[in-house]
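Page 42, continued from yesterday. The earlier attempt failed because a stray header line got pasted into the input along with the sequence. Redoing it now with the clean sequence only.
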Amino acid sequence: MADDSDLERTEPASPRRIELAREDGDVPRSRELATCTVLLAAGGGLWVAGENVVRHINEMLVSMLSFDHAQAFDLDVLLARTTAGIGGVVLAAAPVAVLLMLVAVASPLLIGGWLFSVKALQPNFGRMNPLSGLGNMVSSRAVVELIKAIGKTVIVGTVAWIVISHQIDAVLGLSVEPLKTGSAHLVHLLISSFIAIVGGLVVIALIDAPYQMWQYANKLKMTRQELRQEAKESDGNPEIKAKIRAQQREMARRRMMSEVPTADVVVTNPTHYAVALKYAPGSKGAPKVVAKGADAVAAKIREMASEHHVPLLEAPALARALHSHTELGDEIPEALYTAVAEVLAYVFQLRTYGQRGGARPEMPTDLAVPPQLDPQNPAAKNPDRRKP
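This time it went through. Structure tokens are written below.
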């Protein structure tokens, strides 16, 4: 049952899946919404500028049909008058044409957005398969398109019947109106009827746009297996990543171990923790932690320190505090300056003893470690690792 559920398309499409679909030219589109938007823009543009366009057409017709006998046989005059008349009409209609062009270009932003895909332009001979064509004819998409076509016919037909029935008297009255007045009235009736009828398509567009987005999201749904496979391809195989992290940890451990021979002292727990400290005399900074570890790593640090004659100092509280509140390369916390200073003083005295002899220095035992820095002390309450 678990395997069957992994093969069902129940998961929303991932961003990568949507991106690949867009690269293939597959985006949600609503032709009804785009068509409705352009037609409404055309109706609105004609409503505002239609009277000016009709006036220029009327002037062009009057100018072209009014000429004397000499002008009728003068080709240059006829061409000039025709060019001027057509130019006036074009200029008058230019705002409407520009509006339609802008709306047609901007309409994809309503759903799907702009998209240019080279893959969509490549030939696909699979689309010429007659079996695929027959399958598309009886698909659920074809049924939806049929329902939309019937709905558009019913809605547009109903709105057109209502508009025309309410304007029959006005249309019949055009025959008794003067030519100019009747022409303007006719244009007004046509534009208002056009806008009303196209407005009926808004209902179809408002239904079609959400449906297209739902259908697109449903088509791109993925199975759980596909999501896991995509995660492996995009983020890498978890097993390989685990091996890489293990190698990185091993390389970091080796780099850390290479710093142990250069340390001035190794503070131990004595068995669970080990922290190697290094101090550059004359530097303005505090001593730094060059290596640290617990259990097996701590044992390795102690072993390397012994091999390279780095002093080992048993100071359980100090070792725990340093291990808990520092990272590799960090300077020691200010609250531990006094304790570490006693340790380094002992180390430097031990070096002098080894070079010159004399009385052997006593190992410090009672180091001043603030209780709140010792993880095993009840007074420690979530201490800051970096700034105690």
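Notes: The chain has 14 helices and four strands.
Reminder to self: strip header lines before submitting.
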